[in-house]
Input
Amino acid sequence: MNKKTVNTREETCSCQSTGTDKIIPVVEEVVALTGKGKDRVIPILQEVQKRLSYIPSEALRHICKITDITPGQISGVSTFYSQFHHLPTGKHIIKVCSGTACHVKGSQLISDSFRRVLNIGDRKNTSPDNLFSIEEVACLGCCTLAPVVQIDDKTYGHVKPTQAGDILKDFLVSGGKVSRSEDKASLAGHDAEVRIGLGSCCIAGGSRNILSRLIEITDSFDLRIKIKPVGCVGVCNQTPLLEIVAGNGEHSRYTNVTQDQVEEILLRHIGPESLTKKIRYRINDLADTFVTDHLLESPVNIPADEREKYLNNFTRKQVRLATMHCGILTPDSVEEYLMLGGFDALKKTIQSGDPGQITDIIIKSDLRGRGGAGFPTGEKWRIVANEPGKLKYIVCNGDEGDPGAFMDRMLLESFPYRIIEGMLIAAYATGASEGIFYIRAEYPLAVERIGNALKHCYEKGFLGENILGSEFSFRAEIFEGAGAFVCGEETALITSLEGRRGTPHLRPPFPAVRGYRNRPTLVNNVETLAVVPWIINMGAEAFSRTGSEKSKGTKVFALAGKTARGGLIEVPMGITVREIIEDIGEGVAEGRKFKAVQIGGPSGGCIPASMADTPVDYEELNRMGAMMGSGGLVVLDNTDCMVDVAKYFLSFTHKQSCGKCTFCRVGTKHMLDILTRLSEGKADMKEIDELESLCHYVKNGSLCGLGKTAPNPVITGLKYFRKEYEAHASGICPAKKCRELIRYVITDKCTGCTKCSQECPVGAIGFRPYEKHEINQELCTKCDNCRIVCPENAVEIMDNNV
Amino acid sequence: MFKIRINNIEVDAEAGETILSVSQRAGVSIPTLCHMDGIEHYTSCMVCMVRDKASDSYLPSCTALVREGMDIDASGEDVVSARKKAVELLLSEHRAECEAPCRIVCPAGYDIPRLNRLLAAGEYIKAIELVMSELDAPEIRCLSCRGYCENACRRRKIDRQVSIRNIRIFIYHNLNYQGGPQKPVELTEFPDFKKIFSSRTGRIEEEELKEWLKECREAGKRFESVTDFISAGEEAKNCMHCDCRASDNCRLRELAQELGIRDRGNKVAGLPLTKKISQGTGLIFEHAKCIKCGLCVRICEDKKEEPSLCFINRGFVSLISEPLTAEFDDIPAAQAELCVNVCPTGALSFF
Output
């Protein structure tokens, strides 16, 4: 195989030939596995797609034939959720993340360049040789590595538009394999402990490769160390992160570790055992000093305090409740969770023998729902507890779909036992006997870890009948979402659980009174459940001591965008936006200006830099027109255009609208049309007023939270950045971001190196060595490649109308 | 039992009732589109919106339940403007071309598409009745007219206009055919019908033409001069029926009229124009007229053996469609009947 060509003929897709003879047995097999009830439709479709790579109509017909599922239901459901494909896809699926952080870092350009390289037309999704399909996904939850591309299971971070070809080559050469060696991590007697983060961001940063290298070196030098995979460390944009705890208790941490550095770092701290290996190690070391000069720049030569300053500043202002033991705990190990005091809160709860008392503690702690709206958690519990009837449900809402947010993913991946414990406590307090973890299908690692944790909990007797020898019984299972943002809304989530189209309905009735299967159902966000054990252990007062007057405790945010540092942070409520951005995030990159921060994703708004002293709590953020949302925090600098950001969010909510009510379905479309026209310089001032009036109607008239909050990004944009909107109406994009309003120009700095000409995908720059190059504006697609590659910074972006 | 206020009047209400039903009892009328008594709520159109002054929130009255202390404003300025916006938004994704170009330009306002439809179906007596009832002068006005209708006829874009004048004049001369009209036709018609959502005259896209041609499914023969009822019927089969079959029976049009909306407003782009026509039952579905209220979906029980209409896709691109497992032709007549009856617009009708 010629490794240099991306489109390899030999690999032509085999799924095209899925014959009818294969479909029927697959459907029968799946149905035997999942059951044939009406509410099984989503799991059935997921399994069928997993096996056939798409859902042929033959399969739909056969599912209807052998289950209780009806034709109307299966048609509605399979087309509602974006996970399901009805046409054959390419052999490999390229997912280009279009989350907020990726968007502001140019994901559109990335998507364009993959399409170009693979020769995929505008209206198509699959390359002509059926090898690759491309799709844009709402958010892969790796915001700190933006822009991110995922091919099958392999994630590439910090992608540049010029790298599309190389990435595809790398993928084909590596066969798309991700080494999965964490199971091998030894736990025998050792001199030191080496911790390596294995959250999704870390893995995308290459930490699995680091782990295999660690194991390799340990084996070859016979080192007596314990390699410990831990959950998300929080410093997601500096991954992989390696921490070495020496026998004397000394901690040393390294960020951005590469495979080549592993050996050096390891051997610096730990010596090999046997004599022969010691000698080999010495020789290697000696040889290295002679042959290479890279050692001078190597991380081991940087003094520890300087190396770790970064991490220390990052963690200084954080308070860890939901993310307690972050970077220490091995996510999959129930033993370790127990050793660190896990399930103590559950024991305390059961020993109390009084569910009402537990609810009282939560009420007293003033904990409010972390899903965004901030409804008092204890009150919700009380409503469910007071409902009559024996059968009650708890749903852990892990359908985190906001672009730019990934804290639920990280909590599920890193602290599965803590969330299960939180759910168990809630179950005890409310009298629920069944629990469901509703987790996005885009979070396979979270599904895997919660699945493992549930298995261990059944084995250890934390789940099942008579938990810890008491009368209390509780069962829990996972339900994988199928790709619909609106299902984060609790009523839509429940309809989706019931195997229907995930459309919300008007409350009341609230799920707490009539929810899943018409029974009282407690729907709590992942983070809410994650802090429950802490509150029970430490007491309500300890919790309410932290935070602001009306918002108590801490909040986990996903800090991403244009800050120097990003990642998962847990901060006390009431901290100011400025503290988060400047102290924890270390401000924006040099030469740029902090412009605004987008809080709360598509339901939230942009808070301008001038108001960065706003304390972060539910009321204050609402007052500003933003919203806590689920906690995405994307920092914008002066190169970000507010119209573009608003357009981005509106196109997201518009695409994710369920289509039920008029204002959300059609209203957001009109808003998006106006914003698009603005970004193309085609709208006038009158349309800005019309946009404002539409915001008002959509906000008041929509049925559910998605529609009611959809105008927020525009409302805050108009409130704080109206001048920028008006500039667009006269054809100027002040941030020079909107493609239709800018042009690329090569200045006199050009030395004629021809790099731009070579990179230009459309041949808009003529090849003229040692001469000043020029861009043919007719051909230019504004892909930004020339500006990226120019070593002289000679490519500039100008206003189109000047 | 407790009291709530609706338009400043105290009204008795019972827990579990909707604001709409309490309002109706109190004699306050609230318009609805997607709601129908006896069918499960869907809360889609939002034209039944009211404002609860007590909680300062807008609520869809068809679904929102009464709560003690509510102070409902069901007819105030804000409420009406919100309702109006809802209808405007629906119209912006609605074809909203209730009348055909030929009828709009006709100085006498004759219902040309309806006559063509009757003739094409062989309903000659009914055709005579229609022409009779439209006669407002001693003789048919076509005799002295220059034939604006034929100029506006969209069929011209394909081959040649339908011979509207000759057809009408032929009928006028044969009013006594088989004993003549039995009973006069009662014309229910919108006042100012020409001004409310009439078709764009003269303009039609290539793609639209293709869909509209589906209306001429039995057409073939052309008769420029009409000499008998057979040739009149054959020629009428070439009419593409640019009007809407529900032009005088459309809740959306009525509501727009009530709320004083005359302009079709800015159209949103990207709506499919497709017409589906069932060969067996004659059921027609025109997506561009559907307001996605889901009444047709809710009125039919979703059964395995008998495919009924269902929702597919999500959001702005969601549509009413036959199930993916069946063909449009498979929808049985009984289901089709139910659907056409409940459809508040002309999206579902019979050929």
